[in-house]
């Protein structure tokens, strides 16, 4: 007997391409707020929430991320701004950097009780997220562009990025 799969996993783990830059900036604003609350309150368990959000966004874009869903479904539509599509792979790479830093913060805070060290990683996330949210400068996207330029990331990873002038783009080649 065959059962229907209620979740289409081929669509579940698909990162959007292109990404609405407006929504990315809204998500970055939420990340700033969450990280600052975690740092100021000293509540180590909050690093789990932050890490989950990054891991969910790397794996599925906004699909399994509560912050991603809130930004996509609630905040961005209410802003009334036209979508600003940017290539998805650099944004996914940036989320991956956030995932690495936030998982590191979880390990430091909850695994070793090193809240100060964890707060430094969260502060690094805050800096990158503020640059994205306030200025539209995606630090992870810039690193992605540099890695493409020197050949570590193959050109086939982001076809849209190949058409961009990586040396003059605001965020490392993710804006047409």
Question: What does this protein look like?
Answer:
With 176 residues, the protein is an all-alpha fold. The longest helix has 25 residues, at 88-112. Helix 2 packs antiparallel against helix 6 (115-135), helix 3 (46-60) packs antiparallel against helix 5 and helix 5 (88-112) packs across helix 7. It has a domain at 18-136. It is 65% helix and 2% strand.
What structural class do you assign from the helix and strand content? mainly alpha
Oligomeric grouping of the chains: single chain
Low-confidence stretches: 165-176
Cα(first) to Cα(last) distance is 50 Å
Counting DSSP H or I runs of 4 or more residues, the number of helices is 8
SSE run: HEHHHEHHHH
Helix content: 55-70%
Tally of extended strands? 2
- What sort of overall outline do the alpha carbons produce when their principal axes are compared? globular
Question: What is the typical, i.e. mean, pLDDT?
Answer: 89
Largest sheet: 2 strands, antiparallel
Radius of gyration: 17 Å
Strand order of the largest sheet: 1-2
Which range does the strand content fall in?
A: under 5%
Task: Write a short abstract of this structure.
By secondary structure, this protein is mostly helical.
List the helices and strands and how they pair.
Blueprint: H1 9-12, E1 19-20, H2 21-41, H3 46-60, H4 66-79, E2 85-86, H5 88-112, H6 115-135, H7 139-149, H8 159-162
Antiparallel strand pairs: 1-2
Helix pairs in contact: 2-4, 2-6, 3-5, 5-6, 5-7
